Amino acid sequence: MTAGVVTAVLLFAIAALALIVRRDLVFKLVALGLVNGSTVLLLVSLPRGIGSRPPIAAGAIPPTAADPFPQAYVLAAIVINFAVLALALVFVMMLVERYHTTDARRLEALIREEREAADAEGEDA
Amino acid sequence: MIAALIPLLHLLTSALCGVSGRMARWVAAASWAGSAGLIGLLATKVVAAGEVRYTLGGWPNRWGIELVADEPAIALLALLGLLHGCVYAFEWAGRREASFYVLLQVLVGAAAALTVSHDLFNIYVLLELMTLTSYLLVGFERRPAQLWASLKYLLLASFGMGLFLVGGAVVYEHAGTMNLGELAAVIRAAGDPPWVRLAGALLLTGVGVKSGIFVLSLWLPTAHASAPLAISALLSGVVVKMSVLEILRLAAIFPLAPAIWVLGAITGVLGAVYALFERDIKRMLAYHTLSQIGYALLALAGGSPAAAIAAVAYLVAHGLFKALLFLGTGLAARHVGSAHIGRLVAARDALPRTAVLALFVGTLGIIGWPPLDGFWAKELIGACCDSMATRVMLTVLALGTAASFAKLLPLFGVHRRESDECERGTANRGEMVAIGVLIAGVLFFGWSTPWWISGLRLSAAKLMLDAGRAVLIAGAGWLTYALLKKRWVALPRAIFSTEEGVLAVLLVFLGVWLAIGGGA
Amino acid sequence: MRPIDRLRIAAGALASAGFAAVLLLSIGRGEAGGETAEVIRLTATGAANRVASIVLDIRLYDTLFELFAFSVAVLGVRRFLRRTAGPAVEESLVESHVVRRAAYVLLPPMLVLGAYLACFGHLSPGGGFGGGAVAATGVLLVSVALGADLLAQRFRDERLERLEAVVLVVLLIIALIPAAWSRPLLANLLPPGQPGSLLSAGTIPIYSVLIALKVFAGAWAVVHFFVRHRGEV
Question: Quick check: B1 contacting C, CB < 8 Å?
């Protein structure tokens, strides 16, 4: 078991804990980024994929070269993670602009109040 | 090859929609027509040959991406095509913005690709793409409640997909391939090493977040209830189903049956209980989706290929009547201003006839009233399930369903008092077409399902008996609701925040791992 | 709510620890089989960079969807921030003259580096995504150091949007063309050429360049909207 794998798993667990414990929305996004980063680290440091040299050469490549497949997966994963973070950030920006807080619990309370007010108004009307 | 063409066509036309600005609707409609034709072609091939396989680029299966169109895939693809068309019809008059159609095309394309995908990493990419597009579509109208609901959805879904990718890494490490067929062979040959259980638990939990399993999908009620109408219908009707299809594929490879049974039971019961005590109809429908997914999972846990097909038939039936219910509710709510049942009943004279009809047929469908498609789907499941525990569970769930939907009964009363002040609302042509098609689906789809499972014999006597049983259950459900109405319970909602969601995902992962024999 | 919070933190810590433990105990170590030789043989499509031949040839299908994921993100940023973002913030975040001058000087080399990575992606590490990202980072550097104003004048949103969509259409058509000659979809039809030379590996460098264009345009739009309309809490 390589150091990379151990680090990746521990990072994933820590980032998940951060997602659970911290209330600040931006911090949650950072934690999500860390979750995704640790998955990427896991893919790259898989013992199967590690080799003596990169799989890039015009001529012959020795069989001990690194496995190019996990690297291809990592490429896709990174692009997708970027997309997720960007879009999450967009919604966070819009919500923060409206409610002026990044605290998840306060946001939940504010939005629920609004919804209940709208419902109650509808009930009376 | 056609299987690959369908999603690629959707992608191509979504890019074209992006360029075409105001003509986007027409490009999208043309694309729908094209893809419907392709789906039909593919269906004929699958029906003839049982299964159609294709590897892109001609590479060997182990390394390339393989597409497999089998019966479940083509059933869901047909449902997708139908709902796709209905959404367009429904939104035709109202939405002209190009980005709506671009997003829809990409969503449908990804879903279509998922039905036939047979490669773990491809599944990962497609699930993430579906998450992103449905996230944007839920928040499309930019109302704060929608934004918040979909943000929670995105965080949870991404976390779940992170788990999925970790599972994929474990699989690659040990099996050297991401192809499901090759993976199945490797697992069969490997005996029972710990990595199989680990990977199975990771993959199942990851997909489960998106598929409507109660504890994992705490985002679903708020997201589906806050989304724009047609999007709720599409989400409930299709997106969730695709993830369940992936569970089906995983279940064929990993020994996941006990976990699926437990998850199905919990989801079914909790979803039904929450639906029972919920007065906002859109939210009730969303909780109900959870419960119905539980139903399908219970069927799936049976293990046999016939059970899998029965589960898929149920998913298709559910897609039809749930979409019908969402569209009907949406129409009604639009005229009244809220989806609360009290207000809807009070204003029942003013509701558009289309909406009331949609709700009526949808309710009958969902409680399994014979001979609509819900009844037939439940028949199929009943015929494939042998365990007593499952049968009991399914009956309890059916009861719960009937009880929750008893709330809607006052809407359908026939009354002669037509007051002059309230005018009946009307639906526009597109909406009527969409609802009409779905009603036809709910009424007639069921009759075709017994032919899906070869070797299934349903005698007329059994059918009569089960029809009677279904009516009885419906009646019992209505009675239960009448009794419970006096004792209203306000259930805790505080579990729907993101933190608890992530915690739930981790705990469910551990639970699933233990359930499939992890620590042994 | 304190006891609930404590309970949540405790449960979270337990769950995370349990997760890490389960993973570390069960993850095991696969056998490095003899397949590496087969992989090497398989990926010899003329591209010296075997990862490029996987991303843009063997698993091109995945790459297409992932590119669309990126496009959807850009679309989301555009559509949602175009109207509702806060007022445009023009000042830069940086006071030091050295940094500002350096940013100004670094932009052209970064753009060139991005183009190089894209064009030579099949011969050395790099590729379309990396190239586009590097070029976009140059834009980000200038936007942050010198204020979003400088490049915003050159930023024609509609044109970029159109460019992106056209690139996608062209990409998909190239991918679909083999079907017309009854070859498998997404196959690489152009000649593999001499591995190591610029014009090798069939359609791979074409895809690389197109993807780099798309990623650059998209990331520029994202940077523009995020930096310019950053808003405040």
Answer: yes
